Amino acid sequence: MEFVLNGRRVQVENLAPQTTLLDYLRASGLTGSKEGCAEGECGACTVVLVREGPAGTEYRGVNSCLLFLPMLAGQEVYTVEGLAQGGKLAEVQAAMVRHGGSQCGYCTPGFVMSLFAEQYRPDRGAGFDLHALSGNLCRCTGYRPIKDAALSLGPAPDDAFKARLREPAPALGPAVYESEQGRFVRPGSLEECLTFLALHPEAKLVAGGTDAAVESNLRYRRWELLVGLEAIPELRIFEEHADAVEIGAGLSLGELERRWKGAPQAVRDLLPLFASPLIRNSATLGGNLGTASPIGDSPPVLLALDAAVRIAGKDGERVVSLAEFFKAYRQTALGRGEVIVSVRVPKPYPVHSRFYKVAKRRMDDISTVAAGFA
Length: 374
Ligand code: FES
Ligand code: FES
Prior knowledge:
About 25% of the residues lie in helices and about 25% in strands. It contains 13 helices and 18 strands.
């Protein structure tokens, strides 16, 4: 398996498919990215991927502790070590130094990468969206100097990183990775995926990986076969119809946030409170429904909106209302070898809809109570 790391092609072999990108980086001597939690809550491990966004190629911040290495096949990654060029700090790094944004430094590389992604965001316009930092926690500096560093940043400089954004992002295509410890397969179409799952119904499905990687990192779950859903175009649709909106189950929540312009109020309430921007850049609606976790934030809203899921298997497709989809704690109507293709939200949307979430922190936290109303 090959991917591009800080501008250089690297080859990966003989590593377990559940090795995280973070563990790989640190074992390779790139110890700038840190492990604070291994579950997507601190942002100390933030790196950026080069991805296609609604405004063209962009740097997308993600938690490297939540990415299984084979998911990066053919992809392009930058870590904090890749930013300084010719011995000169990148603007975001220099701004952190100037404003005293770092003390112990444990969180700093993560903040730097989120600052970098936001400074180079193609549709950024003027100003700096401080919510771009809401997936990064600092335990000792205090946020004011970090905020000052962020607000001091002008437009992205016209450098090699800006030039990279004028070229297309790497395509997400089919991939296979195998080692003694297991196998990762990323089908390139729905048909290919269903054919494969009919033969291997025991496979663990992985979309953004933000749930599976936590199970792997903290509970040491191991799967012999992982099937990555990221390269299936049918799972990445976003279609507005007269009677419904149809959302591909594999669209990340970050993409959904930017594409669903006329979303009902409850969805607009929900998305900024759903984990952090770093998680939303990977996590999918299909994943949040498929795991049937009782702390999933999207089900209360989608149930209130009377949504349904389109499910595909080797025997064809069916549409199941979300009210029928959840069977019990972490159990769904999904049969072996089936995948959620899309989520349909009927129109017209309710006149009034809201989402409320009570948690210990306002942003980036697990719900104590979450409620959707329509
Ligand atoms: Fe905390 Fe990755 S180590 S988010
Ligand atoms: Fe110490 Fe942020 S500088 S945790």
